[in-house]
Model the fold of this input.
Amino acid sequence: MSHIDTIPDEPKPLVRFARMLWADKFALAAVLFLLTVLVLAVAGPHWLDGAAQKQNLRGRNAPPFEWERGWLWVLGADALGRPLLARIIVATQNTMMIAAGAVVCSAAIGTVLGLIAGYAGKRTGEVILRLADVIMSFPSLLLAVVVLYILGPSVGNLIVVLSITRIPVYLRTTRAEVLEVRERMFVQAAKVMGASGPRIIFRHILPVVLPTLTTIATLDFAFVMLAESSLSFLGIGIQPPDITWGLMIAQGKQYLTTAWWLSFWPGLAIILTTLSLNLLSNWMRIALDPVQRWRLEMRQTRKGETA
Amino acid sequence: MIPFIRKRAFASLVSLILLIVAVFFLSRLTGDPAALYLPSEASEEMRQQFREVHGLNDPIMVQFGRYVWDLLHLDMGESIRKARPAFDVVAEAFWWTLQLALITMTLVTGAAIVIGSLAAFRAGGFFDRVASVTSLIGASAPDFWVAIVAIVVFAVGLGWLPTSGTGSVWHWILPIAVLFIRPFGLIVQVVRGSMITALSSAYVKTARAKGVKARPIIFVHALRNAMLPVITVIGDQAAALLNGAVVIETIFGFPGVGKLMIDSILQRDFNVVLAAIMITAVAIFLMNLLIDLAYSALDPRIRH
Done:
């Protein structure tokens, strides 16, 4: 604290966030893990699709940690002798695509509806809220089965099902925040200066609401992943030969007593990913909040001084 | 209070009616029950007769009109699968789910409040770190994966507990333990966050300055004020359990409303689906009322 009289320049946002990330080692580990998952999701199928499809009946339910078969067999093999590690890596793409697609769609639709419900008149808001109530209490299983029967099972249709069920989360949060923000001085000022409704909503209100929504979306990504795996587990989500981590758990269920690794590893992949998302969302809650941010930045300087 | 309940009941009723209409028409899009309940070699006559018996022959608007008319006479129709009134089928399953939800939520609430409060009291300490990491892992685990790992370990491997079904006290342990994990993880985090705020408030500092001991400060002064957000989350989680823990009930062969729901959807037993939705909706409405009462009991400033 020797330079108390010279105020340092505000660092660039990117540098600033990198520093705040460095200050929270759990979040750092989570980000690194998620980046790995992202790379695998993009490159995995091109890289290992052959290995993940190739059946090898002599290696049926091969146990894990047998190094002589090669690194792809480290986690063992499934009932058709396909290496589990390769299958998990290939399944990353579908798992991530469904979750990301559902989160982006539901967040976009939910936010717009929430902005309208919060800013428009009382009647419009009430109608939109009742709609959200109906969606919330509509059994998502029934929705999944209906879509499965009418449109057929596919990644795109699963995204539709999951995003419909998650719309109310964003809608309600956005509306609640808008109701508070719209009474603030800068919104009143914009209104007095003659800004149009859409301009006030998107240029003045949305940026204030966005940090909360980003945090919720991160958390919801984990939730959607779990929901997708439950649906696939019940047999009303993704259908073979497509694979996701949830479906892999379901497929391994019948071999539980003889080959536990079939269900164990994909489950572990889900846990590690959702755990990372939870840690990241905890960090974002602080890092994106200008009032709380000092907690991460202070820790940084304190550590820098002792080192 | 009474006008408040009336207003809430009206809003919920509107949502419920919209929901029933949506479910009635959407569920019929999943296919024809006759194709499912009759053997594949059944003649077209037999199929016609089956549809006639279950009233599936008429135009869909006529079917809907009849359903609404029966509903107004408190008749929810027959279950195709069980050949019994749909209400009875659902009521039976709901009783199982209600017991499961009550026991689980009582345990979760007690454990989460104690552990979350203690973690908040020494925020950043060893206990807090352990509690935070465990609760985060708990909130991140897919419950069906935990369920099958638990079956492998405790039922198959060690042979201590039955794998599935009902009948004895032992059958309840695994489902409750698995259902416990995720709500527990979530609620501990909310309790902790809310308690940290409450413990740094002025009235707690005053109590400390006056020499009040740690335990009354945590559980009397701070906890009561920290409970509002906690109750909201408890309500959400309890509602999810009342809707039926579909996957867990399926894995453990538990005859609750979640398993009934998925079975009835897959077997096109439309009346049971509708009855299950209505009964759980009423239960969740009553629970939300209780939660609102709890709000005003905890914080007298909240009046309806």
Observations:
- Chain A touches chain B at residues 130, 133-134, 137-139, 141-143, 145-146, 149-150, 222, 226, 229-230, 233-234, 236, 246, 249, 253, 256-257, 260, 263-264, 267, 270-271, 274-275, 277-279 (CB under 8 Å).
- Chain A has one domain: 3-306.
